[in-house]
């Protein structure tokens, strides 16, 4: 059965609830016949759409408030702003842009895609860019920490103008990885279903969708993940061998940010890898397995969406300098007394061997 016949035979290739980073889920409205078997009948996912909408609304509010405060503190603190802070500033911007898309995805859950093709492309682009820029920025932070602690080099880490170009390159690469979604996305009106936001590439949709999945998963997730594991592995080893307790404490925020990112997005990507292997016939494809993957994608994508509001909470509970920076801004504008700020006390500044690369957050 060729791709064109397959795509015309079922709408299962069309991702009804495309709230995932790679836009490929399994909510079927038609029957998908597997070779030599009876058609697969979709099972309803045990996720209340109104509960999901409520989660999206909460994440939207927390992300909007938290990431705005993070950007405010970093931008306000120009004197001691570090290279890592610039990366974290861009990370907060990416999460903030993603948060702006959540009302659209919440409405999509309840009414279908009612916003037209242009908004379908723009909102999908923002979502994709957030994911790619997030992991690429974390990879750059890991390299910066690796150079600063393992090699104690200052050549790259102290030159802030290089960081601006690196961040610009990250945003550019994220846009390039997201362009296929932007180009091919459109509003589609399937039979017996509400409108969907879906990428349609004609007769070879199935084949091209696999390419669009494998390449971003490789360059936008797997390779940056390997870079982080390599850099942080050697960084931690160096810290423990040298008994650098202070530097280890200064790294707590960074390690927490990376750990939370992996906890939120790794399950979703592992499910996607399983799904990709099934579609490539590396593992056996069955109706039950397809429905199980559909449920897993729906559950893990919610976890991934939750990530956009978690970094500010990490800074607030672990990042002592972030708390002090926020209190200082509030004191400047008369929201708290200067006596309270003095009582709170300025936190100790833990530097690094790279000079101006310590973590302000």
Automatic annotation (TrEMBL):
Cellular component, GO annotation: external side of plasma membrane
Function description: Receptor for interleukin-8 which is a powerful neutrophil chemotactic factor. Binding of IL-8 to the receptor causes activation of neutrophils. This response is mediated via a G-protein that activates a phosphatidylinositol-calcium second messenger system. Binds to IL-8 with high affinity. Also binds with high affinity to CXCL3, GRO/MGSA and NAP-2.
Spans through the membrane: 53-75, 87-108, 131-150, 162-184, 219-240, 252-271
Subcellular localization: Cell membrane
UniProtKB keywords: Cell membrane, Chemotaxis, Disulfide bond, G-protein coupled receptor, Glycoprotein, Membrane, Phosphoprotein, Receptor, Transducer, Transmembrane, Transmembrane helix
Family (UniProt): Belongs to the G-protein coupled receptor 1 family.
Keyword Ribonucleoprotein in annotation: no
A Gene Ontology biological process term: neutrophil chemotaxis
Top-level taxon: Eukaryota
InterPro entries in UniProt: CCR1-9-like, Chemokine_CXCR2, Chemokine_CXCR_1/2, GPCR_Rhodpsn, GPCR_Rhodpsn_7TM
The gene coding this protein: CXCR2
Organismal lineage: Eukaryota, Metazoa, Chordata, Craniata, Vertebrata
Topological relation to the membrane, as annotated: Multi-pass membrane protein
Principal localisation: membrane
Protein known as: C-X-C chemokine receptor type 2
Keyword ATP-binding applies: no
One Pfam assignment: 7tm_1
PROSITE patterns, per the entry: G_PROTEIN_RECEP_F1_1, G_PROTEIN_RECEP_F1_2
């Amino acid at each position: 059965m060729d791709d064109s016949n397959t795509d015309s035979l079922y709408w299962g290739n069309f991702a009804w609830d495309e709230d995932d980073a790679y836009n490929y889920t399994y909510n079927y409205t038609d029957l998908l016949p597997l070779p030599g078997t009876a058609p697969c009948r979709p099972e309803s996912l045990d996720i209340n759409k109104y509960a999901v909408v409520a989660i999206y609304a909460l994440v939207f509010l927390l992300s909007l408030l938290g990431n705005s405060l993070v950007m405010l503190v970093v931008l306000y603190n120009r004197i001691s702003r570090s290279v890592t802070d610039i990366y974290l500033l861009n990370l907060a911007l990416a999460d903030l842009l993603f948060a702006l898309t959540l009302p659209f995805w919440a409405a999509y859950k309840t009414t279908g895609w009612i916003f037209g093709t242009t908004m379908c492309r723009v909102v999908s682009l923002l979502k994709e860019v957030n994911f790619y820029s997030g992991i690429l920025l974390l990879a750059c932070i890991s390299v910066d920490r690796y150079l600063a602690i393992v090699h104690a080099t200052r050549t790259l880490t102290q030159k802030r103008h290089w960081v601006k170009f690196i961040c610009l390159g990250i945003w550019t690469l994220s846009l390039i990885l997201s362009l296929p979604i932007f180009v091919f996305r459109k509003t589609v009106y399937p039979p017996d279903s509400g409108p969907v936001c879906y990428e349609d590439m004609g007769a070879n949709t199935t084949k091209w969708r696999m390419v669009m999945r494998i390449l971003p998963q490789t360059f936008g997730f797997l390779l940056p993940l390997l870079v982080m594991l390599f850099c942080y592995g050697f960084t931690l080893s160096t810290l423990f061998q040298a008994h650098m307790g202070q530097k280890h404490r200064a790294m707590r925020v960074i390690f927490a940010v990376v750990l939370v990112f992996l906890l939120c997005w790794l399950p979703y990507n592992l499910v996607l890898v399983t799904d990709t292997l099934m579609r490539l016939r590396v593992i056996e494809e069955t109706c039950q397995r397809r429905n199980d993957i559909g449920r897993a994608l729906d559950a893990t994508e919610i976890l991934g969406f939750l990530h956009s509001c978690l970094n500010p909470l990490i800074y607030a509970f672990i990042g002592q300098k972030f708390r002090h920076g926020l209190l200082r801004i509030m004191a400047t504008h008369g929201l708290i007394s200067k006596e309270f700020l003095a009582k709170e006390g300025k936190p100790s500044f833990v530097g690094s061997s790279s000079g101006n690369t310590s973590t302000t957050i």
